[in-house]
Design brief:
CATH architecture: 4-Layer Sandwich
Number of domains: 1
Number of helices: 7
Strand order of the largest sheet: 5-8-9-10-15-12-11
Helix content: 10-25%
Number of strands: 19
Distance between the termini: 36 Å
Low-confidence stretches: 4-28
Structural class: alpha+beta
Radius of gyration: 21 Å
Mean pLDDT: 87
CATH class: Alpha Beta
CATH topology: Deoxyribonuclease I, Chain A
Order of helices and strands: HEHHEHEEEEEEEHEHEEHEEEEEEE
Length: 365
Amino acid sequence: MTRLAFKILVFILALSCGTPSKSSFPEKVKKEYKAHTIAFYNVENLFDLENDPNTVYHGSTLKGQSFYTEDVYNAKLKNLSKVIAAIGRDFTGTTPSIVGLAEVENFNVINDLVNQDALIESEYSIVHYDSPDLRGIDVGLIYKKSVFIPTSSNYHRLKLFDIENIFRKTHTRDQLVVSGILEEELVYLIVHHWPSQSAGKRKSTSHRIKAGELNRKIVDSIFTLDPNAKIINMGDFNDDPINPSIKETLFTSGSSKDMKTTDMYNPMEPMFRKGLGTLAWRDSWSLFDQIMVSSELVKKDFSSLRFYQAGIFNPPYLTISYGKFKGYPYRSYSSEGWTGGYSDHFPVFIYLIKEREIPNKKQLP
């Protein structure tokens, strides 16, 4: 969408939302909208170049293989930064305001990422905590210092139990919670990477339900403090929008109508029902990467910060263009090594918009 198209869209949106007629506005004021892109991206094994002795599986990760060289690392950083810089640009005219990340090893790799040529002028800052994941991968958050001001951040560790309900040492990703000020309003962001299906979907379902229960506990604690909280819940959930870990545990809805105050709207659910996805496996698409928002963000009074639209970012260069995997995400690695690609996941995003009043310079004294 071009900038001109966005201005036209804003005008139409203003009319559809019951905006007063032009004659009812003060003569020296006109209506405009500020738009922000909030994105999430599983960047597929963004490791640094040194083995971490505390990572049990480091020998089976990319760091344990000869092809993960400095040239490969730098090429991957360049590719990922190109993608992040482009998410939402056609709509907002700029890079995303906030991006949640999964499969980053540590603060250093995120710092190298935001200092790539495609992102450095955006001046992103970083929120990151080390987790106990055996592969050495974490979640993180980057944000533009010019538009978002963090007020707090914390992590929540997921405690997993075996079938006898006995606690076992946790080796999975933490859930990251960040609050801050965007467009002079308090928003809450939660970033996840839930336990995978590598051990089999049925066997691992209970782990993701536990992750959902922790996620819901975090959401409820925010609502206790702020009943009208604006919450953005994002991540690689390793389950689809209609699975019990999400629908029944998080109380999500695929429709923004008739929501309870504490419900979460999941705009990825209708996408999934249409057959869309963010990753593919054995000719089947999954939509594990999702962004959900609280009911306060889906109200139609755009004088406050509101959800406008969601999407999957999958331009042609992010997909494989030939062979048996045609149409799949153009991943970074295969069994033969570096492919020159990006990630095995497509990023997802939402747009937040807010009406603002700007003085008309021509009419000012």
